[in-house]
Amino acid sequence: MKSTVEQLSPTRVKINVEVPFDELKPDFDRAYKKIAQQVTIPGFRPGRAPARILEQRLGRGVVLEEVVNGVVPAKWAEIISAGEVHPLGRPEIEVTEIEDGDHLAFTAEVDVRPEIEMPAFTELAVSVDDVEVTDAEVDEQLDGLRSRFGTVITVERPVREGDFVTLDLSATVEGEQVTELATTDLSYQVGSGELIEGIDDALVGTAQGDERVVTTVVAAGEHAGRQAEVTAKIQAVKERELPAADDEFAQLASEFDTLEELRADLRTRLRRAKALQQGAQARDKVLKALLTTTEVPLPESIVDSEFESRRHDALHIFEHDKRRLGRWLEQHGQTEEEFEADLRTSARETVKANLLLDAIADAEKLSVTHDELTERIVYQAQRRGVSPAEYAQQAHESGELHAMSANVRRGKALDTVVRQATVTDGSGNPVDVDALDDSVTPEQAASAG
After folding, report:
1. What local confidence, expressed as pLDDT, does residue 446 receive?
2. Verdict on whether the full-model pTM lies above 0.85
3. Is residue 233 classed as helix, strand or coil in its secondary structure?
4. What is the C-alpha separation between 108 and 103, in angstroms, rounded?
5. Which of 86, 195, 203, 416 is the residue whose CA sits 20 to 30 A from 178?
6. Gap between the Cα atoms of 443 and 420, Å rounded
7. pLDDT tens-digit readout, 82-104
8. CATH homologous superfamily of domain 2-111?
Protein backbone atom coordinates (compact mmCIF):
# COMPACT_ATOMS: atom_id res chain seq x y z
CA MET A 1 0.00 0.00 0.00
CA LYS A 2 1.19 3.48 -0.89
CA SER A 3 -0.22 6.61 0.67
CA THR A 4 0.51 10.32 0.42
CA VAL A 5 -0.81 13.12 2.60
CA GLU A 6 -1.97 16.36 1.01
CA GLN A 7 -2.42 19.31 3.40
CA LEU A 8 -5.67 21.09 2.48
CA SER A 9 -5.62 23.51 5.43
CA PRO A 10 -3.96 23.72 8.85
CA THR A 11 -6.72 21.43 10.17
CA ARG A 12 -7.64 19.21 7.21
CA VAL A 13 -5.76 16.72 5.05
CA LYS A 14 -6.47 14.55 2.04
CA ILE A 15 -4.85 11.13 1.99
CA ASN A 16 -4.37 9.43 -1.36
CA VAL A 17 -4.13 5.65 -1.04
CA GLU A 18 -3.22 3.04 -3.65
CA VAL A 19 -3.41 -0.67 -2.88
CA PRO A 20 -1.95 -3.21 -5.38
CA PHE A 21 -4.06 -6.26 -6.06
CA ASP A 22 -1.15 -8.43 -4.93
CA GLU A 23 -2.06 -7.44 -1.35
CA LEU A 24 -5.74 -8.27 -1.80
CA LYS A 25 -5.70 -12.08 -2.13
CA PRO A 26 -6.84 -12.63 1.51
CA ASP A 27 -9.57 -10.03 0.97
CA PHE A 28 -10.80 -11.79 -2.19
CA ASP A 29 -10.80 -15.13 -0.33
CA ARG A 30 -12.95 -13.61 2.43
CA ALA A 31 -15.27 -12.00 -0.13
CA TYR A 32 -15.81 -15.28 -2.02
CA LYS A 33 -16.50 -17.13 1.23
CA LYS A 34 -19.00 -14.50 2.42
CA ILE A 35 -20.83 -14.34 -0.91
CA ALA A 36 -20.98 -18.14 -1.18
CA GLN A 37 -22.72 -18.31 2.20
CA GLN A 38 -25.32 -15.77 1.10
CA VAL A 39 -26.41 -17.33 -2.20
CA THR A 40 -27.80 -20.69 -3.29
CA ILE A 41 -26.33 -22.27 -6.41
CA PRO A 42 -27.71 -25.60 -7.66
CA GLY A 43 -25.23 -28.45 -7.35
CA PHE A 44 -23.25 -26.89 -4.52
CA ARG A 45 -23.75 -26.98 -0.80
CA PRO A 46 -24.18 -23.55 0.93
CA GLY A 47 -20.81 -21.84 1.20
CA ARG A 48 -19.04 -24.34 -1.07
CA ALA A 49 -19.45 -22.79 -4.53
CA PRO A 50 -16.00 -22.02 -6.08
CA ALA A 51 -14.93 -18.49 -7.00
CA ARG A 52 -15.19 -19.14 -10.76
CA ILE A 53 -18.83 -20.22 -10.48
CA LEU A 54 -19.71 -17.26 -8.23
CA GLU A 55 -18.27 -14.80 -10.75
CA GLN A 56 -20.08 -16.49 -13.63
CA ARG A 57 -23.42 -16.34 -11.85
CA LEU A 58 -23.15 -12.97 -10.07
CA GLY A 59 -20.57 -11.06 -12.05
CA ARG A 60 -17.11 -9.80 -11.18
CA GLY A 61 -18.54 -6.50 -10.01
CA VAL A 62 -20.30 -8.07 -7.03
CA VAL A 63 -17.02 -9.58 -5.84
CA LEU A 64 -15.09 -6.35 -6.33
CA GLU A 65 -17.71 -4.40 -4.39
CA GLU A 66 -17.46 -6.81 -1.47
CA VAL A 67 -13.65 -6.58 -1.51
CA VAL A 68 -13.67 -2.80 -1.60
CA ASN A 69 -16.18 -2.59 1.27
CA GLY A 70 -13.82 -4.58 3.45
CA VAL A 71 -10.47 -3.24 2.25
CA VAL A 72 -11.07 0.50 2.47
CA PRO A 73 -11.90 0.70 6.22
CA ALA A 74 -9.15 -1.83 6.99
CA LYS A 75 -6.50 0.17 5.12
CA TRP A 76 -7.73 3.38 6.74
CA ALA A 77 -7.28 1.73 10.14
CA GLU A 78 -3.72 0.76 9.17
CA ILE A 79 -2.93 4.38 8.29
CA ILE A 80 -4.23 5.56 11.66
CA SER A 81 -2.33 2.85 13.54
CA ALA A 82 0.88 3.87 11.77
CA GLY A 83 0.46 7.38 13.11
CA GLU A 84 0.57 9.05 9.72
CA VAL A 85 -2.27 11.36 10.75
CA HIS A 86 -4.16 12.18 13.96
CA PRO A 87 -7.80 12.37 12.84
CA LEU A 88 -10.36 14.35 14.82
CA GLY A 89 -13.45 12.88 13.21
CA ARG A 90 -14.73 10.48 10.61
CA PRO A 91 -13.11 10.65 7.17
CA GLU A 92 -14.90 11.38 3.93
CA ILE A 93 -13.81 8.45 1.78
CA GLU A 94 -14.14 8.21 -1.99
CA VAL A 95 -13.03 5.27 -4.13
CA THR A 96 -11.38 6.92 -7.13
CA GLU A 97 -10.17 3.97 -9.19
CA ILE A 98 -10.53 0.21 -9.43
CA GLU A 99 -8.13 -1.19 -12.00
CA ASP A 100 -9.08 -4.87 -11.88
CA GLY A 101 -6.03 -7.04 -11.47
CA ASP A 102 -3.73 -4.08 -10.90
CA HIS A 103 -4.69 -1.70 -8.09
CA LEU A 104 -7.41 -0.04 -6.00
CA ALA A 105 -7.22 3.71 -5.22
CA PHE A 106 -9.22 5.82 -2.80
CA THR A 107 -8.97 9.18 -1.04
CA ALA A 108 -9.84 10.12 2.53
CA GLU A 109 -10.40 13.70 3.70
CA VAL A 110 -10.43 14.23 7.44
CA ASP A 111 -9.93 16.92 10.06
CA VAL A 112 -6.66 16.54 11.95
CA ARG A 113 -4.86 18.10 14.86
CA PRO A 114 -3.13 21.27 13.70
CA GLU A 115 0.54 21.99 14.13
CA ILE A 116 0.83 24.26 17.15
CA GLU A 117 3.80 26.47 17.96
CA MET A 118 4.14 26.31 21.71
CA PRO A 119 5.02 29.34 23.82
CA ALA A 120 7.82 29.15 26.36
CA PHE A 121 6.08 27.77 29.43
CA THR A 122 8.66 29.36 31.71
CA GLU A 123 7.55 32.80 30.50
CA LEU A 124 3.99 32.30 31.72
CA ALA A 125 3.27 34.16 34.97
CA VAL A 126 0.07 34.22 37.03
CA SER A 127 -0.99 35.47 40.44
CA VAL A 128 -3.32 33.59 42.79
CA ASP A 129 -5.05 34.48 46.03
CA ASP A 130 -3.18 34.39 49.33
CA VAL A 131 -3.79 31.47 51.67
CA GLU A 132 -4.78 33.53 54.68
CA VAL A 133 -7.32 32.53 57.32
CA THR A 134 -8.98 35.27 59.37
CA ASP A 135 -10.50 35.00 62.83
CA ALA A 136 -13.88 35.87 61.31
CA GLU A 137 -13.65 32.87 59.00
CA VAL A 138 -12.81 30.60 61.93
CA ASP A 139 -15.79 32.06 63.80
CA GLU A 140 -18.03 31.29 60.84
CA GLN A 141 -16.85 27.67 60.77
CA LEU A 142 -17.35 27.37 64.51
CA ASP A 143 -20.89 28.77 64.22
CA GLY A 144 -21.61 26.25 61.48
CA LEU A 145 -20.48 23.45 63.78
CA ARG A 146 -22.56 24.87 66.65
CA SER A 147 -25.61 24.96 64.39
CA ARG A 148 -25.41 21.18 63.99
CA PHE A 149 -25.93 20.85 67.72
CA GLY A 150 -28.48 23.65 67.99
CA THR A 151 -32.17 23.33 68.70
CA VAL A 152 -34.95 24.86 66.62
CA ILE A 153 -37.66 26.73 68.53
CA THR A 154 -40.81 28.49 67.36
CA VAL A 155 -40.77 32.29 67.72
CA GLU A 156 -43.47 34.93 67.41
CA ARG A 157 -41.73 37.68 65.48
CA PRO A 158 -41.09 38.69 61.85
CA VAL A 159 -38.86 36.47 59.74
CA ARG A 160 -35.14 37.23 59.68
CA GLU A 161 -32.52 35.86 57.34
CA GLY A 162 -31.32 32.51 58.64
CA ASP A 163 -34.66 31.64 60.23
CA PHE A 164 -36.52 28.44 59.42
CA VAL A 165 -40.06 28.79 58.12
CA THR A 166 -42.77 26.25 57.42
CA LEU A 167 -44.41 27.07 54.10
CA ASP A 168 -47.39 26.05 52.03
CA LEU A 169 -46.68 26.69 48.35
CA SER A 170 -49.11 26.95 45.44
CA ALA A 171 -48.54 28.12 41.88
CA THR A 172 -50.45 29.22 38.82
CA VAL A 173 -49.49 29.58 35.19
CA GLU A 174 -51.75 31.95 33.28
CA GLY A 175 -54.32 31.60 36.05
CA GLU A 176 -54.36 27.80 36.08
CA GLN A 177 -53.19 25.86 39.14
CA VAL A 178 -50.01 23.80 38.65
CA THR A 179 -50.19 20.84 41.00
CA GLU A 180 -46.59 19.70 40.51
CA LEU A 181 -45.35 23.01 41.93
CA ALA A 182 -47.57 22.86 45.03
CA THR A 183 -46.55 21.52 48.43
CA THR A 184 -47.46 21.85 52.12
CA ASP A 185 -45.47 21.99 55.35
CA LEU A 186 -42.20 22.66 53.54
CA SER A 187 -39.36 23.50 55.93
CA TYR A 188 -37.05 26.12 54.44
CA GLN A 189 -34.16 28.20 55.74
CA VAL A 190 -34.51 31.79 54.62
CA GLY A 191 -31.42 33.04 52.83
CA SER A 192 -30.21 29.62 51.68
CA GLY A 193 -31.13 30.36 48.05
CA GLU A 194 -32.32 26.78 47.59
CA LEU A 195 -35.91 27.53 46.63
CA ILE A 196 -37.09 29.89 43.88
CA GLU A 197 -35.41 33.14 42.92
CA GLY A 198 -36.75 36.09 44.90
CA ILE A 199 -38.39 34.06 47.67
CA ASP A 200 -35.75 34.89 50.28
CA ASP A 201 -36.22 38.66 49.94
CA ALA A 202 -40.00 38.24 49.92
CA LEU A 203 -40.04 36.21 53.16
CA VAL A 204 -37.88 38.52 55.26
CA GLY A 205 -40.16 40.65 57.46
CA THR A 206 -43.21 38.40 57.14
CA ALA A 207 -44.96 36.72 60.07
CA GLN A 208 -47.05 33.62 60.71
CA GLY A 209 -50.17 33.64 58.53
CA ASP A 210 -48.77 36.07 55.95
CA GLU A 211 -48.73 35.30 52.25
CA ARG A 212 -46.26 36.45 49.62
CA VAL A 213 -46.41 36.04 45.83
CA VAL A 214 -43.23 35.62 43.78
CA THR A 215 -43.05 35.56 39.98
CA THR A 216 -40.63 33.04 38.54
CA VAL A 217 -39.89 31.09 35.36
CA VAL A 218 -40.52 27.34 35.49
CA ALA A 219 -37.20 25.58 34.81
CA ALA A 220 -38.41 22.13 33.80
CA GLY A 221 -41.42 19.94 33.23
CA GLU A 222 -44.60 20.56 31.28
CA HIS A 223 -44.54 24.31 31.94
CA ALA A 224 -40.78 24.84 31.45
CA GLY A 225 -39.95 28.33 30.25
CA ARG A 226 -43.32 29.77 31.25
CA GLN A 227 -43.94 32.41 33.91
CA ALA A 228 -45.53 31.21 37.14
CA GLU A 229 -47.02 33.02 40.12
CA VAL A 230 -45.92 31.20 43.29
CA THR A 231 -47.76 31.92 46.53
CA ALA A 232 -46.00 31.16 49.81
CA LYS A 233 -48.03 31.10 53.03
CA ILE A 234 -46.04 31.20 56.26
CA GLN A 235 -47.31 28.60 58.74
CA ALA A 236 -44.56 28.97 61.35
CA VAL A 237 -41.39 30.90 62.09
CA LYS A 238 -38.51 29.20 63.90
CA GLU A 239 -34.98 30.07 64.92
CA ARG A 240 -32.04 27.95 65.88
CA GLU A 241 -30.55 28.32 69.35
CA LEU A 242 -26.85 27.60 69.40
CA PRO A 243 -24.94 26.02 72.29
CA ALA A 244 -22.36 28.20 74.00
CA ALA A 245 -18.90 28.22 72.41
CA ASP A 246 -16.84 26.84 75.30
CA ASP A 247 -14.67 23.89 76.28
CA GLU A 248 -17.76 21.80 77.06
CA PHE A 249 -18.99 22.28 73.49
CA ALA A 250 -15.54 21.42 72.08
CA GLN A 251 -15.64 18.10 73.98
CA LEU A 252 -19.18 17.43 72.72
CA ALA A 253 -18.53 18.23 69.06
CA SER A 254 -14.95 17.04 68.57
CA GLU A 255 -12.06 15.01 69.90
CA PHE A 256 -10.54 18.13 71.47
CA ASP A 257 -10.67 19.09 75.17
CA THR A 258 -10.64 22.86 74.76
CA LEU A 259 -12.26 25.44 72.52
CA GLU A 260 -8.81 26.78 71.68
CA GLU A 261 -7.74 23.38 70.29
CA LEU A 262 -10.95 23.13 68.28
CA ARG A 263 -10.44 26.58 66.78
CA ALA A 264 -6.86 25.69 65.86
CA ASP A 265 -8.10 22.59 64.04
CA LEU A 266 -10.73 24.61 62.20
CA ARG A 267 -8.05 27.08 61.14
CA THR A 268 -5.90 24.23 59.79
CA ARG A 269 -8.83 22.81 57.83
CA LEU A 270 -9.62 26.22 56.38
CA ARG A 271 -6.03 26.66 55.31
CA ARG A 272 -6.10 23.31 53.53
CA ALA A 273 -9.34 24.24 51.79
CA LYS A 274 -7.87 27.54 50.64
CA ALA A 275 -4.76 25.76 49.41
CA LEU A 276 -7.04 23.55 47.33
CA GLN A 277 -8.72 26.65 45.91
CA GLN A 278 -5.33 28.20 45.27
CA GLY A 279 -4.23 25.10 43.36
CA ALA A 280 -7.36 25.10 41.20
CA GLN A 281 -6.97 28.83 40.61
CA ALA A 282 -3.37 28.38 39.50
CA ARG A 283 -4.41 25.76 36.96
CA ASP A 284 -7.28 27.88 35.63
CA LYS A 285 -5.14 30.99 35.27
CA VAL A 286 -2.21 29.18 33.67
CA LEU A 287 -4.56 27.57 31.16
CA LYS A 288 -6.10 30.95 30.35
CA ALA A 289 -2.65 32.50 29.88
CA LEU A 290 -1.61 29.56 27.73
CA LEU A 291 -4.65 29.93 25.48
CA THR A 292 -4.20 33.69 25.23
CA THR A 293 -0.59 33.43 24.07
CA THR A 294 -0.99 30.46 21.69
CA GLU A 295 -2.45 30.40 18.19
CA VAL A 296 -4.51 27.26 17.63
CA PRO A 297 -6.24 26.75 14.24
CA LEU A 298 -9.68 25.27 14.87
CA PRO A 299 -11.37 22.65 12.66
CA GLU A 300 -14.87 24.04 12.21
CA SER A 301 -16.48 20.61 11.95
CA ILE A 302 -15.22 19.77 15.45
CA VAL A 303 -16.43 23.12 16.77
CA ASP A 304 -19.80 22.46 15.14
CA SER A 305 -19.98 19.05 16.81
CA GLU A 306 -19.19 20.53 20.23
CA PHE A 307 -21.74 23.30 19.65
CA GLU A 308 -24.46 20.82 18.69
CA SER A 309 -23.71 18.75 21.78
CA ARG A 310 -24.09 21.80 24.01
CA ARG A 311 -27.28 22.89 22.29
CA HIS A 312 -28.71 19.37 22.64
CA ASP A 313 -27.96 19.40 26.38
CA ALA A 314 -29.63 22.82 26.75
CA LEU A 315 -32.75 21.73 24.85
CA HIS A 316 -32.92 18.50 26.86
CA ILE A 317 -33.82 20.54 29.94
CA PHE A 318 -36.90 21.78 28.07
CA GLU A 319 -37.72 18.32 26.67
CA HIS A 320 -36.45 19.50 23.25
CA ASP A 321 -39.30 21.99 22.93
CA LYS A 322 -37.80 25.11 21.31
CA ARG A 323 -40.85 27.15 22.26
CA ARG A 324 -40.21 26.52 25.94
CA LEU A 325 -36.58 27.45 25.53
CA GLY A 326 -37.64 30.60 23.70
CA ARG A 327 -39.96 31.63 26.55
CA TRP A 328 -37.22 30.98 29.10
CA LEU A 329 -34.74 33.09 27.09
CA GLU A 330 -37.30 35.89 26.81
CA GLN A 331 -37.81 35.89 30.58
CA HIS A 332 -34.04 36.22 31.03
CA GLY A 333 -33.66 39.00 28.48
CA GLN A 334 -31.70 36.98 25.94
CA THR A 335 -32.44 36.27 22.30
CA GLU A 336 -31.99 32.87 20.69
CA GLU A 337 -29.20 34.34 18.54
CA GLU A 338 -27.34 35.58 21.64
CA PHE A 339 -27.86 32.25 23.38
CA GLU A 340 -26.44 30.30 20.44
CA ALA A 341 -23.57 32.76 20.06
CA ASP A 342 -22.62 32.13 23.69
CA LEU A 343 -22.80 28.37 23.11
CA ARG A 344 -20.57 28.63 20.04
CA THR A 345 -18.03 30.78 21.90
CA SER A 346 -17.78 28.25 24.72
CA ALA A 347 -17.56 25.43 22.16
CA ARG A 348 -14.63 27.12 20.43
CA GLU A 349 -12.87 27.70 23.75
CA THR A 350 -13.28 24.04 24.72
CA VAL A 351 -12.00 22.73 21.38
CA LYS A 352 -9.02 25.09 21.50
CA ALA A 353 -8.10 24.02 25.02
CA ASN A 354 -8.43 20.32 24.19
CA LEU A 355 -6.30 20.59 21.04
CA LEU A 356 -3.61 22.55 22.85
CA LEU A 357 -3.44 20.22 25.84
CA ASP A 358 -3.42 17.18 23.56
CA ALA A 359 -0.48 18.67 21.66
CA ILE A 360 1.39 19.29 24.93
CA ALA A 361 0.67 15.73 26.06
CA ASP A 362 2.05 14.42 22.75
CA ALA A 363 5.17 16.56 23.02
CA GLU A 364 5.78 15.44 26.60
CA LYS A 365 4.97 11.81 25.73
CA LEU A 366 2.37 11.64 28.50
CA SER A 367 0.15 8.61 28.99
CA VAL A 368 -2.55 7.54 31.43
CA THR A 369 -1.73 4.68 33.78
CA HIS A 370 -4.17 1.99 34.83
CA ASP A 371 -4.14 3.34 38.41
CA GLU A 372 -4.93 6.90 37.22
CA LEU A 373 -7.87 5.73 35.14
CA THR A 374 -9.10 3.50 37.97
CA GLU A 375 -8.97 6.45 40.37
CA ARG A 376 -11.10 8.46 37.95
CA ILE A 377 -13.60 5.60 37.57
CA VAL A 378 -13.94 5.22 41.34
CA TYR A 379 -14.45 8.96 41.77
CA GLN A 380 -17.17 9.15 39.08
CA ALA A 381 -18.86 6.00 40.40
CA GLN A 382 -19.11 7.55 43.86
CA ARG A 383 -20.66 10.70 42.38
CA ARG A 384 -23.30 8.66 40.57
CA GLY A 385 -23.96 6.28 43.43
CA VAL A 386 -23.01 3.09 41.59
CA SER A 387 -20.23 0.53 41.98
CA PRO A 388 -16.94 1.16 40.13
CA ALA A 389 -17.44 -2.05 38.12
CA GLU A 390 -20.93 -1.00 37.05
CA TYR A 391 -19.79 2.49 36.11
CA ALA A 392 -16.76 1.15 34.19
CA GLN A 393 -19.06 -1.13 32.17
CA GLN A 394 -21.43 1.76 31.41
CA ALA A 395 -18.54 4.02 30.43
CA HIS A 396 -17.08 1.36 28.14
CA GLU A 397 -20.38 0.73 26.37
CA SER A 398 -21.12 4.44 25.89
CA GLY A 399 -17.61 5.34 24.76
CA GLU A 400 -17.18 7.60 27.79
CA LEU A 401 -14.13 5.67 28.95
CA HIS A 402 -12.04 7.01 26.06
CA ALA A 403 -13.12 10.59 26.80
CA MET A 404 -12.33 10.09 30.47
CA SER A 405 -8.82 8.89 29.68
CA ALA A 406 -8.31 11.85 27.34
CA ASN A 407 -9.36 14.29 30.08
CA VAL A 408 -6.99 12.75 32.61
CA ARG A 409 -4.17 13.04 30.05
CA ARG A 410 -5.03 16.70 29.43
CA GLY A 411 -4.96 17.32 33.16
CA LYS A 412 -1.45 15.88 33.30
CA ALA A 413 -0.43 18.10 30.39
CA LEU A 414 -1.67 21.17 32.22
CA ASP A 415 0.22 20.06 35.34
CA THR A 416 3.39 20.01 33.24
CA VAL A 417 2.84 23.63 32.18
CA VAL A 418 1.89 24.83 35.67
CA ARG A 419 5.14 23.44 37.11
CA GLN A 420 7.17 25.48 34.62
CA ALA A 421 5.16 28.70 34.93
CA THR A 422 5.79 31.38 37.56
CA VAL A 423 3.01 31.32 40.15
CA THR A 424 2.92 33.92 42.92
CA ASP A 425 0.34 34.76 45.56
CA GLY A 426 -1.35 38.12 46.06
CA SER A 427 1.55 39.27 48.23
CA GLY A 428 4.09 38.47 45.54
CA ASN A 429 5.47 35.36 47.23
CA PRO A 430 6.35 32.32 45.06
CA VAL A 431 3.83 29.48 45.37
CA ASP A 432 5.07 25.91 45.77
CA VAL A 433 3.27 24.40 42.78
CA ASP A 434 4.32 20.84 43.61
CA ALA A 435 2.64 21.20 47.00
CA LEU A 436 -0.56 22.29 45.27
CA ASP A 437 -0.79 19.00 43.38
CA ASP A 438 -1.89 17.21 46.54
CA SER A 439 -4.66 19.73 47.14
CA VAL A 440 -6.34 19.39 43.75
CA THR A 441 -9.18 16.87 43.54
CA PRO A 442 -9.35 14.25 40.77
CA GLU A 443 -12.33 16.09 39.25
CA GLN A 444 -10.40 19.35 39.00
CA ALA A 445 -7.41 17.54 37.55
CA ALA A 446 -9.48 16.13 34.70
CA SER A 447 -11.69 19.12 33.96
CA ALA A 448 -9.08 21.39 32.39
CA GLY A 449 -10.47 22.84 29.22
Report:
1. 39
2. no
3. strand
4. 17
5. 203
6. 22
7. 887 889 888 999 999 998 888 99
8. Trigger factor ribosome-binding domain (3.30.70.1050)
